[in-house]
Amino acid sequence: MSTPAPEGYDPHAYAPFAVTVDLAVFTVREARLHVLLVERGQEPFRGRWALPGGFLLPRESAEDAARRELAEETGLGQDTVGALHLEQLRTYTAPDRDPRMRVVSVAYAALLPDLPEPRGGGDAASARWWDTGAAGPLAFDHDRILADAHDRIGAKLEYSCLATAFCPAEFTLGELQQVYETVWGVELDRPNFRRKVLNAPGFVQAVEGPPRRTGGRGKPAALYRAGDATALHPPLLRPPGPDAPHSAPEGRER
Amino acid sequence: MSTPAPEGYDPHAYAPFAVTVDLAVFTVREARLHVLLVERGQEPFRGRWALPGGFLLPRESAEDAARRELAEETGLGQDTVGALHLEQLRTYTAPDRDPRMRVVSVAYAALLPDLPEPRGGGDAASARWWDTGAAGPLAFDHDRILADAHDRIGAKLEYSCLATAFCPAEFTLGELQQVYETVWGVELDRPNFRRKVLNAPGFVQAVEGPPRRTGGRGKPAALYRAGDATALHPPLLRPPGPDAPHSAPEGRER
DNA sequence: CAAATAGTGTCTGTCAGACATTATTGG
DNA sequence: CCAATAATGTCTGACAGACACTATTTG
């Protein structure tokens, strides 16, 4: 846009593109990472599952479009969607990523606590949660977007307080640990996890009145709320995998 | 793009957008972080400085467009530009960010070793390096893009081997340390810096033949090349600032 | 009581920052 | 010799992982 354009140029002289948003909406259900998908009703990829999303309106930012689409496809209230953390992932611009026309897509990730199935109605009729491991080949380049999103979320858990976004307003440290274990696909030592979470200033704050809640049998756990910090100091680093010496994951836009 | 579109819809029914790339090209000169800017030759913002960039061609990806524009504006060879690390930052979509028309811009960051001034010629005639601290108000929302880019680069230095991209093919550890100090705006302890860099597998590799090079007077330093790793284990963490207890920097898309 | 989950305490090796010291060059 | 930069070594405190142990609930 800073390249000198011809004097008195006509906007239509530049190639028009369609711009969409695609949403990778995650939740943790039963110790598995799930993603919200919609079934396509028409070609191309009719019958295949895809990330929810849609076209930007003429005077709408991508983030506004993402919230609007999310509300439409999940049936969540505008207030919930309005307060939600939306993380811009990256933008996909391969010329042939949509066979119909030139489409540039801005991808976002969103994290939700475990919710009931999206209520049928409007666009949400065909939406459901899928285990990320079981989600088959998706439409367009959405497999790639989903993989990028998973990587990014996993990386962000290390140095941000994002994990609480997967939890309800009040949660136990066991539930928070479950989020980390599910997204990272590892098991963590409970005492050490507690120590790190409680030592990170502003990550969580204890809920005063000693109400407690149980997750079945066993000792009831203390409840916490998300703290006021957004970044995590010190970071809660992922245990070094038994694998590669030095690889280069995506993600990390810290 | 997954929102059900009307059956047999016409692409022109959807709002057309212009898509551009904007480039934050950084280098370290004389212990200061510099960015490549171009002076605008026409309205809007005539005479103001802006990030280099330009419109996507009809069948070109954003990264291809970024490399093409970079070659045009800096006069760098296609081979250099082709091997360069380009980091997609984020996409800016505010509806009024360009007063002329609806423009969505994909921003990239690039890191270069200290180079001579861009050769005049073609679009590069008005390009020059600016100290990031002295760069005045830029055109459009480029101040914001530049600030985001600086944050991101700073964060990436912590957990990636990106810093070597600021250095020539063979460099000393003092030069590498200078990169960190300049981007982060802090001073680092040299012995500790050496230890961490040399302990990070694949970050740098010593150049065999004991050639040495000097940066003035003082003991000549051993030379190193970039290693084969792209991620840094363990990360080289920024010293905790004397400031805020917990803030939320941009950056970090790790 | 057994099983399951929550929570506390401790030990030990590693690594961080801080800093002293030596080495090698130019002026 | 002095200044400047490079390189090595050492000390100490903080923190990580590992793990033993206690507490509280359900069946």
CATH class of the largest domain in chain A: Alpha Beta
In terms of per-residue confidence, which ranges of chain A show pLDDT below 50 for 5 or more consecutive residues? 1-12, 244-252
Structural category of chain A is: alpha+beta
Tally of discrete structural domains of chain A: 2
| CATH fold group of the largest domain in chain A | Nucleoside Triphosphate Pyrophosphohydrolase
Query: What is the beta-strand fraction of chain A?
Result: 15-25%
* Helix percent band of chain A: 10-25%
Q: Give the assembly state of these chains.
A: homodimer
CATH superfamily of the largest domain in chain A: Nucleoside Triphosphate Pyrophosphohydrolase
Keywords (chains A, B): Hydrolase
GO molecular function (chains A, B): hydrolase activity
Protein name (chains A, B): DNA hydrolase
Domain Nudix hydrolase (chains A, B): 16-160
